């Protein structure tokens, strides 16, 4: 495992920052590449993404991880003081490798944010069985729906 992947291991705590009980920001990937921290804020667009949250690159760069319900990895156009800022190729390539290696964990954390923000609801229909440890557990899930 390279140094950058080891350092980029998503935080077990979720990297959640809280103020007065409210979720403010999640740092998901640290130091990818060195000096760039990636995450999201709790009052954001509902489309899955990562953006820089470190002090030096604060909101300079963003990549979309979803488009029309499909997985993507697309740099977003970012403007700062009227100027378009392009994500440097070296940063983009390293971030893409790390995201690919940890995509399931990143998506799980995004789903948790969606549930916390009530952007996602779970409707369970049909039989649900909770049996002793000797028998299989079964349940039917009817649908996951995004809230509007």
Q: Unreliable stretches, pLDDT < 50, 5 or more residues?
A: 1-20
How many H/I helical runs? 2
Oligomer description: single chain
Considering DSSP H and I runs of 4 or more, what fraction of the residues is helical? 10-25%
Gap from first CA to last CA: 41 Å
Largest sheet: 6 strands, antiparallel
What proportion of the residues form beta strands (DSSP E)?
25-35%
Notes on the protein architecture:
With 148 residues, this protein is α+β, with helices and mostly antiparallel strands. The protein has one domain. The strands form 4 sheets. It has a 6-stranded antiparallel beta sheet, with helices on one face. Strands 7-8 form a two-stranded antiparallel ribbon.
Provide a concise account of the structure shown.
The chain is of the alpha+beta class. It contains two helices and twelve strands; from the N terminus they run H-E-E-E-E-E-E-E-E-H-E-E-E-E. It is elongated and about 55 Å long.
Keywords summarizing the entry:
148 residues; alpha+beta; two-stranded antiparallel ribbon; disordered N terminus; 6-stranded antiparallel sheet
Give the arrangement of secondary structure elements.
Layout: H1 3-7, E1 16-19, E2 22-29, E3 38-41, E4 49-52, E5 62-67, E6 70-75, E7 78-80, E8 83-85, H2 89-116, E9 120-123, E10 128-129, E11 138-139, E12 143-146
Antiparallel strand pairs: 1-2, 2-3, 3-4, 4-5, 5-6, 7-8, 9-12, 10-11
């Amino acid at each position: 495992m390279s140094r950058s992947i080891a350092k980029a291991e998503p935080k077990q705590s979720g990297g959640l920052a809280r103020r007065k009980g409210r979720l403010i920001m999640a740092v998901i990937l640290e130091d990818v590449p060195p000096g760039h921290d990636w995450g999201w804020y709790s009052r954001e667009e509902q489309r899955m993404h990562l953006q820089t949250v470190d002090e030096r690159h604060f909101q300079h760069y963003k990549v979309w991880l979803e488009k029309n319900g499909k997985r993507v990895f697309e740099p977003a156009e970012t403007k700062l003081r009227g100027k378009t800022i392009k994500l440097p190729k070296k940063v983009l390539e390293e971030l893409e490798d790390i995201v690919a290696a940890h995509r399931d964990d990143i998506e799980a954390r995004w789903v948790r944010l969606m549930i916390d923000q009530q952007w996602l609801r779970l409707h369970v229909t049909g039989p649900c069985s909770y049996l002793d440890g000797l028998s299989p557990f079964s349940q039917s899930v009817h649908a996951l729906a995004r809230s509007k």
